[in-house]
From TrEMBL:
Gene name for this UniProt entry: phnH
A biological process term (GO) from this entry: organic phosphonate metabolic process
Family annotation (InterPro entries): PhnH-like_sp, Phosphonate_metab_PhnH
Protein name: Phosphonate C-P lyase system protein PhnH
Gene3D superfamilies, per database record: Bacterial phosphonate metabolism protein PhnH
Cited Pfam families: PhnH
GO molecular function: lyase activity
Organism listed in the record: Metasolibacillus meyeri
Keywords, ordered alphabetically: Lyase
Length: 190
């Protein structure tokens, strides 16, 4: 029964983060999969089950098999996956390729899009980003260790609402930030 409560708490944290983009949630650590943060495994256990599919950006078979064993999720190619996991240390080109491949849904079923989980590694230089959109009163400023090209690609993938991708950014410290497709994100330059 403890696992049920653990995943329910994590799901509630994720819902709060999606409802108020830019706010930081804290995730618990319980389960470990080599190659992933424990917090990412927490997100997977909260969101994946036998009805959805996933893939890692680098298609690590060990990670895929471990996540499948924990969640029952189906392993599918990047272009078909409901969830894409981008582990820390993923090369910039692989990260951008995975985001580019992510499905955005269609006008009849926009919910058939991908949610991308990105582990922030702390090595990538932090960018100050300005967020706006539903769930944000005026503007929200956040500092994120993401590539400028990721921001541009995400903007491009979300340009035709209701189509688009949702993102969950996970730090090693356990902090999580959600970026729904309705959130505009712009780099702040000095």
């Amino acid at each position: 029964m403890e696992t049920v409560h653990f995943t329910q708490r994590a799901f509630r944290t994720l819902l709060d983060c999606f409802a108020r983009p830019g706010t930081v949630g804290e995730l618990e650590r319980e389960y470990v999969v080599n190659g992933l943060y424990a917090e990412t495994v927490t997100v997977c256990m909260s969101l994946l089950d036998g009805e959805v599919s996933f893939q890692t950006a680098t298609e690590y078979q060990d990670i895929n098999q471990s996540i499948r064993a924990l969640t029952g999720g189906q392993i599918k190619p990047l272009e078909q996956a409901d969830f894409i996991i981008i582990p820390h240390g993923t090369e910039k080109e692989q990260l951008l390729k995975a985001v580019e491949a992510a499905k955005v849904g269609d006008l009849i079923d926009p919910q058939k899009s991908a949610t991308i989980m990105i582990e922030l590694d702390g090595i990538t230089p932090a960018i100050m980003a300005q967020l706006s959109g539903p769930g944000i009163k005026k503007l929200e400023m956040v500092e994120l260790a993401v590539y400028k090209e990721f921001i541009e690609l995400r903007t491009n993938k979300n340009k035709e609402f209701p189509l688009g991708i949702d993102c969950i950014l996970i730090e090693r410290s356990g902090r999580v930030i959600a970026l729904p497709r309705t959130t505009s994100m712009n780099e702040v330059t000095n």
